[in-house]
Amino acid sequence: MPYVAADERYTSLPYRRVGRSGLHLPAISLGLWQNFGGTDVFETGRAILRRAFDRGVTHFDLANNYGPPYGSAEANFGRWMEMDFRPYRDELIISSKAGYDMWPGPYGNFGSRKYLIASCDQSLKRMGLDYLDIFYHHRPDPETPLEETMGALDHIVRSGRALYVGISSYSPELTRKAYKILKEQGTPFVIHQPSYSMLNRWVEDGLLDTLAELGLGCIAFSPLAQGLLTRKYLNGVPADSRAAREGSLKPQMLTAENIERIRKLTAIAEARGQSLAQMAIAWVLRRPEVTSALIGARTVEQLDDSLDALKRLDFSEGELREIDVHAQEGEIDLWRKQSQVKKDD
Hints:
- This protein is an alpha/beta fold.
- Helices cover 35% and strands 13% of the residues.
């Protein structure tokens, strides 16, 4: 039976303006970093995307190497587009990125013009799209001149491959430099995608202020700290978890001290009438600079739980102080040392 989107899809989820641009994003967006690749259950991913759109999530975020294997999340998304979402293309914001390892040899990584344009073309082909709404440079390149990387983003827009461009994991200083180059070229640079959570606050050391000053939006990835800000690890490491697979959540983060902090944060959330995951998402969205929180989902039920964070976004000063006491100490700060350069490998 053909998919027909829910009539009430725009009635409950708020949309926020992306900086000073004319673009708006849902307060919560869905990322396909995990759980949507070739090794995952195709129909589960399809059901999650359907439910997300039915609840007003109009923004789906991908990257060239999301999977595993590389490229398979985009390939699957292309099939879901054709099966379900083609009639709704103009209601969707679809983004992709390039900047991490993708193919062998010297042209399949980082930020050269060769890599970015070739990668964008591959992403469009895998997803069966004529254009992307947003194309990001995924991480800073320490060797390629910034002018070359930003020039490639400009070309991607001018050639019709994307409507807007963004950057991810750039420091405040590099963000300013990128903004200056792109502004001089007249490129629609509108958004930055950094990691941000209660346990990972590097963006508060100048980046959020920079984005507000420049009029750029912010979409925060990993607001749940790769699953640590959930109840998942309170009673050990589940076999199907990221920590068990030694993926994006490093096992060294699961110390007894850190788990105890998570228990205390869980108690704060429960006193608010929320799950820990819901409070973590609401906490990120409390900042006016944050346009959208970028979540993942393994099941439809998990997606619904995360979207229900929007039922309560307010925090008292006492709650914020108590969260700070339990979330800003010890080994959790390992994230701070990595976030300005790259996502956790």
